[in-house]
């Protein structure tokens, strides 16, 4: 069996840890879509919309452990505990609340990624030079 530098067994993130209070190691990804409107000439009057939905991707057991009753499982209700899903979302809309729960459960941020696109918005009743920016952001958390 492989050993870590500390001499313990080398575990992959998908394996359970028998020590550390019985907590499983693994990854949870939090994602959300956002948008904002920027007026003419890039003025500082950008209008940001609230986060509509925070999505959760990871093993069902880990997601339930961290988010409990605030995890909405309606899109994948009978998922086995050790299977991955990307179909859950949270019943609240505050990223800070999700980050706090992950931190309290012993997770740390491992990576993040964001994409953005821009479109002109005259078809939505705005002036021809108003722009709508949309983005998708993901945060990857891990627990060893």
UniProtKB/TrEMBL annotation:
<dbReference type="InterPro" id="IPR057093">
    <property type="entry name" value="H1_KCTD8_12_16"/>
</dbReference>
<dbReference type="GO" id="GO:0008277">
    <property type="term" value="P:regulation of G protein-coupled receptor signaling pathway"/>
</dbReference>
<protein>
    <submittedName>
        <fullName>KCD12 protein</fullName>
    </submittedName>
</protein>
<keyword id="KW-0472">Membrane</keyword>
<dbReference type="GO" id="GO:0043005">
    <property type="term" value="C:neuron projection"/>
</dbReference>
<feature type="region of interest" description="Disordered">
    <location>
        <begin position="1"/>
        <end position="23"/>
    </location>
</feature>
<dbReference type="Pfam" id="PF23110">
    <property type="entry name" value="H1_KCTD8_12_16"/>
</dbReference>
<keyword id="KW-0966">Cell projection</keyword>
<keyword id="KW-0597">Phosphoprotein</keyword>
<keyword id="KW-1003">Cell membrane</keyword>
<dbReference type="GO" id="GO:0042734">
    <property type="term" value="C:presynaptic membrane"/>
</dbReference>
<dbReference type="GO" id="GO:0043235">
    <property type="term" value="C:receptor complex"/>
</dbReference>
<dbReference type="GO" id="GO:0045211">
    <property type="term" value="C:postsynaptic membrane"/>
</dbReference>
<feature type="domain" description="KCTD8/12/16 H1">
    <location>
        <begin position="26"/>
        <end position="143"/>
    </location>
</feature>
């Amino acid at each position: 069996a492989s050993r870590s530098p500390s001499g313990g067994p080398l575990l992959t993130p998908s394996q359970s840890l028998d020590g550390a209070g019985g907590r499983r190691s693994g990854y949870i990804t939090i994602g959300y879509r956002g948008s904002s409107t920027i007026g003419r000439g890039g003025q500082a009057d950008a209008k940001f919309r609230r986060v509509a939905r925070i999505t959760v991707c990871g093993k069902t057991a880990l997601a339930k452990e961290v988010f409990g009753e605030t995890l909405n499982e309606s899109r994948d209700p009978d998922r086995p505990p050790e299977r991955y899903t990307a179909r859950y979302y949270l019943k609240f809309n505050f990223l800070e609340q999700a980050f706090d729960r992950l931190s309290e459960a012993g997770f740390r941020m491992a990576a993040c990624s964001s994409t953005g696109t821009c479109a002109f918005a005259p078809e939505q009743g705005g002036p021809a030079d108003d722009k709508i920016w949309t983005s998708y952001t993901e945060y990857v958390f891990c627990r060893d």
